[in-house]
Amino acid sequence: MASLLQLLLHLSEKAANLARRIRAEKTLFDLLVEEKTGEQKNKNFVHDFKTLADVLIQELIRHEVSKQHPSLADHVLGEESNKFTNTLGETIVVAVQDTEQQTCSLLTKVLDGNAEAAAILASIIHREVAMTTDELLATVQIDLDVDSVGIWIDPIDGTSEYIHGGGEGPLPADGICPVGLPLALVLIGVFDRATGQPLMGLINQPFAKYNKQDNSWAGQSLWGISYKNTNINNIETPKSNAADKKGMSVVMSRSEVPQFISAMETVTNNNVKYTGGAGYKVYCAIQQLVDAYVLSKGSTFKWDTCAPHSILKSLGGGIIDLGKGLSGMKESPEGSYGEADLQSTQLAYNQPDDVKGASPGQKWANAGGMIAYRKPEVALKILSELCVIKGSEEG
């Protein structure tokens, strides 16, 4: 299992390098932000190039994992379809080829004959990246049948932040970046195909640290393993935890339902933070920048949460289905709902949530909303106080 994570760490760094290079190379960046008008406008083209960056990362990981673990080829899952239609009406299946020249040829077709952009992309994809050995990971000994797992990939979580950029300035006092490139993450999560439980995950943050001297970015990687009695990760203990000093804090989406925001303001005594990117909000909980990420809607997906969920599990936390948690606590005798009950409401990743009438695009949504937390008592307190608020409203 450790060897699989080492492979995924290496691939995540290749993916992060691709994400950084697309923004650094003028030829590619111009395509990333291009907006054609009038007769030249192809309504799908701009979306397609943004999607192509996602697909290339997804297929890069699939290609390399399949070479080393052929049985996993059909179990590397992601958000994006790898089928593209160019302006000539040709449908092209994007896949990393065995050689740089072959990949370049395929990408040239996808990019409507833009050989320069295709050559740069192919070069980046086939170039190796240097990585230092993770000494902690090298010590991990876990007996897991790799053939029994699946992998969820979110190639660039926080695509809007990735496109629009920003975030070069100093962080606010609470350590939470409100907008910009630091919110764009590469997420790779491994789950048990039989139980759906997350087993290991990694978050690669390509734009973690900005160097204004040469206008460049450096990244960082976080990982965690939670399997049977083994829980290990590379998360450093923060020097201080602002959440402990100021009471419970949560991070939420700016597009959250107003009534739910009001409820969480009551729960936290107005200690609610806002930022973008589902993965980044869970990252904030992992790093103890907040106590929890709370979401009332089914607007996140399995590829958003599998990786950070694994890391939270390795820290003693988790991600529960908010709807199931509220129902379970409401139906239990007062004061009896505890940590063991949280385990039965953890998100699972091997099958869609059972939601009648869900549209195809919502198939893999975390339909009941969620609470992501490091400490079980935080999740229990949130559920308890939300139940009280809901009960008073109904009364």
CA distance, first residue to last residue: 52 Å
Secondary-structure class: alpha+beta
Instruction: Give the helix level as a range of percent.
Output: 40-55%
Strands in their spatial order, largest beta sheet:
1-4-5-6-7-8
- Overall pLDDT score: 89
* Rg calc: 21 Å
Q: Write the H/E string, N to C.
A: HHHEEEHHHEHEEEEHEHEHEHEHHEH
Largest sheet: 6 strands, mixed
Into which percentage range does the β-strand content fall?
Answer: 15-25%
Question: Could you list the spans in which at least 5 consecutive residues all have pLDDT below 50?
Answer: 35-47
User: Shape, please?
Assistant: globular
What is the count of helical runs? Answer: 14
The count of DSSP E runs of length 2 or more, i.e. the number of strands, is: 13
What order do the helices and strands come in, and which of them pair?
Layout: H1 2-24, H2 26-33, H3 45-68, E1 76-78, E2 83-85, E3 91-93, H4 100-110, H5 115-126, H6 135-138, E4 149-157, H7 159-164, E5 185-192, E6 198-211, E7 216-227, E8 230-233, H8 242-246, E9 250-252, H9 258-268, E10 272-274, H10 278-286, E11 292-295, H11 302-314, E12 318-321, H12 322-331, H13 339-343, E13 370-373, H14 376-394
Parallel strand pairs: 1-4, 9-10, 9-11
Antiparallel strand pairs: 2-3, 4-5, 5-6, 6-7, 7-8, 11-13, 12-13
Helix pairs in contact: 1-2, 1-3, 4-5, 10-11, 12-14
